[in-house]
Amino acid sequence: MKPENTEELFSAHLKQGEQAFVQLKVWRVIETTAEHDTHLRYRLALIVGGVCVLQFNNASDKKSGRDRLATPADSIHDIPKLLTEFWQRVDAYHGEKQ
Fold first, then answer.
1. pLDDT averaged per 10 residues in sequence order, the chain, 98 residues
2. Which of 35, 16, 33, 32 is CA-nearest to residue 24?
3. Would you say 72 and 63 are in contact if contact means Cβ atoms under 8 Å apart?
């Protein structure tokens, strides 16, 4: 679902073996608010066997109840750095499971 007041910049669904996939979504915030004062929103997730095992998410919506991994504040404005950090965590997760 598209967050309010946003424009989608990027969306991808990437298979990671038989039981896993990565979902990447990045939006541009058209008008910032007091709750969300950055111009980017993102949700990057690794799903394994139907369970979200890793998620970077800067949305203010806390309905899911899932733990969100904190990302450095400077990454919020730097998509390449954010993606690099996420993929490093994905690689580390897969390395731990082998």
1. 80 94 91 73 92 84 52 64 90 83
2. 16
3. no
